[in-house]
């Protein structure tokens, strides 16, 4: 009798093994390659993100019996990411890549991974170029709110308040180019609504105190949208105030998604003789930032992550109570992947089918560590954003005045909101057709990021870029000293901006 039972058992084992697809058994172990900068000065460095990934690993292991073998490699913020990938990848291709965050690093890695059929989930890669998955980014899922999603909140504001034209002022470091990509998205969202935009790039080390040209540019537009460091924003606001352009005829925004310590209360204060004027000027400045939802579990998670980071002796960049969006995002990335893998296994596929798993991560809403995360049908997260404004002019303090929800495109008005602040006192003259003509040309030419390096000097210290000179600049490209810009390869990230 025992012999018969043993036989039955062994038969069953054999038949089970035969019935189950081989992939199903292997799906339990997932090889993950994390590509993030080792340099701890990035808020998304390996040291900052690792504790969150480890927490996710632990909670998934206990709930879903999924084992992750995670390797961390240095992505740098540029070429390094690709080299780390191919050096590791040739030995054994990973089942999943988390990161990179920096645009140029991500661009290389995502294309190779897509070619290898390996899913990539990143809390970065926010540039508009990545939204076109058909351009080689087929296996990318973006769990951070992309710049284009942010920009759609701006175009919704334009629609709602009837604004017609925007001046985009951005700081361009010509390396990581975060503000360039931020403003590129705004340009692209406003252009889609046939609104007029004009753009001016500012180079950090060559600032001027005199801004007559800036003032003239502001006068020609209704809304000024900035992406720059705190000191540059302050200079621009002081300039605008000096030229009496903060009187309600112009609307000002500063986009600052990630660095909570550089906006809000006291951001105008420097302890110099301009503080009083700056406070008055900042009364006209609105700040567009990420809306971070908080649930009780998230506070615990934040505390735990922060404790681990401190234990590792890494500088803590966050002034707020909670960890930043990248840390949160990579935690949820592992969660999202495990949900998709589970579904793939149910459908008889396994971790080897990267395109299938990628598809299963898209068009899906799930409960992340901080709240609901919704990924659209293109694989991009629907982000939520907040607009902050000065509500106490005496103290010069800021509060969120409304929120924008990406999932349904709706606004939520908060106490302290005053519609006068967003209503233009007087209509400006219609904008000339010349600009949009130049704009059309740049789009038609299919200009790519990095191709446009030439600049035209307007003021001794301000560089000025206008759409209508793009063709000229493309021709000059050969003569232009590439210098440190060599890494902005033409094939890197496509863009229709400038
Ligand atoms: C880390 O990054 C910062 C800012 O990008 C840079 O100034 C610094 O030199 C880098 N450190 C190392 C060791 O590469
Ligand atoms: C954030 O902003 C503050 C104030 O402007 C600045 O000192 C700090 O270096 C910024 N942090 C990062 C990571 O950029
Ligand atoms: C937070 O952690 C504490 C102690 O670790 C625990 O008692 C509490 O239930 C946790 N709260 C939530 C909301 O998870
Ligand atoms: C991956 O899954 C898709 C179905 O979504 C299927 O058409 C394809 O053949 C699979 N690829 C592999 C390599 O199994
Ligand atoms: C997204 O999911 C919904 C149901 O959850 C479905 O009706 C819709 O067709 C899906 N969209 C795409 C593009 O797959
Ligand atoms: C800014 O000041 C206001 C009013 O004093 C306060 O309600 C708010 O919490 C402060 N915000 C921050 C981020 O400290
Ligand atoms: C939009 O979504 C947000 C967040 O999910 C929700 O709070 C809000 O009620 C929704 N608004 C509309 C008009 O559906």
From TrEMBL:
Which terms are listed as keywords in the entry?
Glycoprotein, Membrane, Receptor, Signal, Transmembrane, Transmembrane helix
Q: Kindly indicate where the leader peptide sits in this chain.
A: 1-27
Keyword flag NADP: no
**Classification via InterPro entries:** ANF_lig-bd_rcpt (IPR001828), ANP_Clearance_Receptor (IPR052612), ANPR/GUC (IPR001170), Peripla_BP_I (IPR028082)
Supply the Gene3D superfamilies for this chain: 3.40.50.2300
Where does the chain cross the membrane? Answer: 439-464
Keyword rRNA-binding annotated: no
Q: Where in the cell is it found?
A: Membrane
Identify the residues that the record assigns to the Receptor ligand binding region domain, covering every copy: 50-391
Q: Name one Pfam family in it.
A: ANF_receptor
Query: Which Gene Ontology BP annotations are present?
Result: signal transduction
Q: Which SUPFAM superfamilies match?
A: Periplasmic binding protein-like I
GO-annotated molecular function: natriuretic peptide receptor activity; peptide hormone binding
Its GO CC terms?
membrane
Q: How does the record say this protein sits in the membrane?
A: Single-pass type I membrane protein
PANTHER family in the cross-refs: ATRIAL NATRIURETIC PEPTIDE RECEPTOR 3 ISOFORM X1, NATRIURETIC PEPTIDE RECEPTOR 3-RELATED
What is this protein identified as?
Natriuretic peptide receptor 3
Q: Which organism is it from?
A: Scleropages formosus (Asian bonytongue)
């Amino acid at each position: 009798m025992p012999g018969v039972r043993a036989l039955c058992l062994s038969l069953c084992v054999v038949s089970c093994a035969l019935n189950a697809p081989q992939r199903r058994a292997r799906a339990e172990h997932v090889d993950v390659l994390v590509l993030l900068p080792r340099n701890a000065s990035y808020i998304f460095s390996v040291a900052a993100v690792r504790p969150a990934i480890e927490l996710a690993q632990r909670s998934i292991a206990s709930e879903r019996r999924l084992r992750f073998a995670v390797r961390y490699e240095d992505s740098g913020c540029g070429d390094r990411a690709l080299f780390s990938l191919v050096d590791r990848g040739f030995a054994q291709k990973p089942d999943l890549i988390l990161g990179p965050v920096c645009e140029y690093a991500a661009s290389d890695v995502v294309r190779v991974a897509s070619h290898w059929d390996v899913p990539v989930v990143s809390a970065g890669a926010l540039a508009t170029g990545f939204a076109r998955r058909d351009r080689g980014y087929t296996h990318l899922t973006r769990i951070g709110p992309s710049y284009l999603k942010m920009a759609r909140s701006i175009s919704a504001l334009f629609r709602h308040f009837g604004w017609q034209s925007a001046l985009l002022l951005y700081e361009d470091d010509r390396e990581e180019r975060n503000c360039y990509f931020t403003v590129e998205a705004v340009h692209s969202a406003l252009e889609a609504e046939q609104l007029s935009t004009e753009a001016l790039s500012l180079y950090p080390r060559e600032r001027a105190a005199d801004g007559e040209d800036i003032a003239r540019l502001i006068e020609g537009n209704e809304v000024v949208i900035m992406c720059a460091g705190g000191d540059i924003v302050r200079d621009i606001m002081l300039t605008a105030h000096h030229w009496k352009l903060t009187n309600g005829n112009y609307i000002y925004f500063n986009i600052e998604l990630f660095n909570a310590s550089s906006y809000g209360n006291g951001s105008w204060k420097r302890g110099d003789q301009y503080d009083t004027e700056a406070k008055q000027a900042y009364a006209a400045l609105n700040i567009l930032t990420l809306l971070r939802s908080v649930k009780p579990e998230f506070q615990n998670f934040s505390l735990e992550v922060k404790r681990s980071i401190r234990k590792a002796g890494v500088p803590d960049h966050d002034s707020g109570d909670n960890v930043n969006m990248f840390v949160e995002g990579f935690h949820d990335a592992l969660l999202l992947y495990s949900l998709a893998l589970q579904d793939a296994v149910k459908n008889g596929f396994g971790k080897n089918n990267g395109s299938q798993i990628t598809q299963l991560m898209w068009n899906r809403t799930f409960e992340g560590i901080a709240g609901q995360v919704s990924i659209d049908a293109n694989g991009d997260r629907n982000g939520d954003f907040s607009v902050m404004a000065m509500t106490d002019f005496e103290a010069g303090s800021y509060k969120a005045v409304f929120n924008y929800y990406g999932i349904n495109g709706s606004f939520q008005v908060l106490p302290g909101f005053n519609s006068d602040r967003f209503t233009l006192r007087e209509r400006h003259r219609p904008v000339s057709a010349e600009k949009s003509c130049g704009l059309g040309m740049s789009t038609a030419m299919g200009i790519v990021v990095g191709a446009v390096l030439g600049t035209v000097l307007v003021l001794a210290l301000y560089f000025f870029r206008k759409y209508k000179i793009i063709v000229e600049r493309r021709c000059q490209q050969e003569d232009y000293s590439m210098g440190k810009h060599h890494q902005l390869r033409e094939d890197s990230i496509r863009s229709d901006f400038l």
